[in-house]
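debug: dumping io for the single-chain case to check the tokenizer round-trip. Nothing else runs in this session.
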Amino acid sequence: MSEHRDEPANAIAPHERIDAAEAISLLQELVRIRSPFFEEDEMANAVYDWLDERGLEPEYHAVSEPEITGFEGRNVVARIEGTDPDAPTLMLNGHMDTVQLVDGWDEDPLSGRIEDGKCYGQGACDMKGGLVSLLVAFEALADLQLRGDVVLTAVVGEEGPYGLGTYQLLCDGLTDDVDGAIVAEPGPTIAQQELENPALILGSRGGVRYEITVIGDAAHAAHPERGTNAVVDAARIATAFDEMQCATHPVLGSGSVCPLEIRGGDDPLSVPDRCSLAVNRHVVPGETEAVVLEQASALVSELDLDSSVEIELRDVPSEDARFGPYVTNEEHGLVRALADSSERLTGAEPAVGYFSSIGDFNHLGHTAKIPTIMIGPDGDNVHRSGEYVYTDEVGAVARIVADAAAAWLK
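debug: decoded output
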């Protein structure tokens, strides 16, 4: 993009300011950095340095969660100031972390190898490709005279249990003035339905996790009838959850329940008198924490167990740190700007989809109540060996985001 630095402001369309070769070089650099969640320092430094070298004035933003995880980390934040304080503010949000390196790779999982239009590596698709799209789009917008602000947030901990990096943005007020957010998750890969780019993901189910304790009565395993087997009762509870009917939403579909883990029975020859059960539940609007707890209690009560049962939701750093469901209106101005840019630059009207699971977008779309759209480069094998992102889509998404941002903030 440097060849356009001396051009008059706004003389060149934002998408024309995207340097595809620079984007792919940056993608390979970032893919080669090991950055599983809670271990993102090297990645944060690389993103900071890239922004700093271009005069984009990045800052580190401290992330701290001492009570549950003990995590201390750093987001990277940068802002382009607009000319009109009353104009909307746009957030570009992408996570720097990956899942832990998985087994099964037949090459270096951080190779950044490019072959047949694909860049390979753990996190290449989820979501270093999307993060690169946002970085180069942000650079393309930096010299323009926009009315509104653009805030770039490269965050830590999205793949971790609580989305701590983005949640810290909310806690520290960095989302207070934000009127719309773009999260560059790989849309087609994570959507409920089969989609091809260009695609806009306009909402997501939320998620809670039940932590259930079952307390029975111990006895010698030779006489199980004399005790109350907590493991057996926990299994009955798990089966009931597995068969549970959940609410349905017009665009997000049905909620879902999945028993995850049963633990109990430490003594080799005793009826287990204590067992724990973890159950994941994806929720749709209307299925609040109070509702899902009440429904779980009713389900267990109907089983008429001899064990006593305690039902709680998993501890979170704060009650508003849970992942709630959200839907962004298709007629919102930012959605229309992204749709128009997608069609103009690709020749195809973008598909619209919704996500089945949870992520940082829930903090933005539900907790902060910011209209939030996901659009990102596609690929495959997310969270698996052989993960890759399509290199041409990294630049394509950057061009769409840059043009849409300029149109919305003009």
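debug: round-trip ok. Residues 1-5 have pLDDT under 50 and may be disordered.
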